[in-house]
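User: Hey, quick favor. My workstation is busy. Could you predict this chain's structure for me?
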Amino acid sequence: EVTRARARAGADVLVAARSPERAAEKVAGIAGVEVDRLDLVDPESVDAFAGRRLAAGRPVDVLVNCAAAAPPAGRTLDA
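Assistant: No problem, here it is.
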């Protein structure tokens, strides 16, 4: 919804995603939205993303981080 709202407001929106193919499917048809690969766990991915932004001459003005880390499966017993 953040992507849709910003795009409707006239912003150029860049969706940085670990899986750009899946992200592109989600935002298909929303004008002003671009998808690029970014995996925050992988330093090489971060460097490559930054390099592409610099080469394009288009800095990232605002970053909305919607990533989450899932806890390991299982249960713990507290005393």
